[in-house]
């Protein structure tokens, strides 16, 4: 009954519930590894929102960039930090109260903003917006020169990184050979 009152698709509401639940788990959990895993689930559910909005390219980029690369960096940082219970500072309860009040005010502002927005904004009027096919057409017609220049820039960066890596390893090999003799 509540789903029909809101006028939103049930898939959107279920995904929104999962996203908010995972995001709250990220913030409230004491174990940083579990928080990172919940953040990955949050990014997956946000990608599902993009798919509901017919923006497949954004969904894939969100998964590759955030759920892939950024989360790997977070996990490496957590492994390198050596987080212990003894090292954690004690947080006064005043901060919890301030955070709860701020979250409540943010919820009220978001509810008022959504209440004022019309349903035409929430619904996708054109089914072709966000498709990879249309993005490819625009990239290869209107923005061909910047697209090719950015590709050349990325290629030069990769070649430079490989050359720097090979040069450094060759120097290490030569110094280790001379020290062994």
Distance between the termini: 82 Å
Low-confidence stretches: none
The first-level CATH class name of the largest domain = Mainly Alpha
Number of domains: 2
Share in β-strands: under 5%
Q: What is the mean predicted local confidence, pLDDT?
A: 78
Residues in helices, as a percent range: over 70%
H/E element sequence: HHHHHHHH
Q: Please outline the major beta sheet.
A: none
- Total strand count, please? 0
The assigned CATH architecture of the largest domain is Up-down Bundle
CATH topology of the largest domain: Four Helix Bundle (Hemerythrin (Met), subunit A)
CA radius of gyration: 24 Å
Note the overall shape: flat
Name the structural class: mainly alpha
Query: CATH-wise, what's the superfamily of the largest domain?
Result: NADH-ubiquinone/plastoquinone oxidoreductase chain 6, subunit NuoJ
Count of helix runs: 8
Indicate the topology:
Blueprint: H1 2-6, H2 10-28, H3 32-52, H4 56-81, H5 93-116, H6 119-122, H7 132-141, H8 144-180
Helix pairs in contact: 2-3, 3-4
Task: Give a quick precis of the structure.
It contains eight helices and no strands.
Could you list some keywords that capture this structure?
181 residues; mainly alpha; Four Helix Bundle (Hemerythrin (Met), subunit A); 2 domains; 8 helices; 0% strand
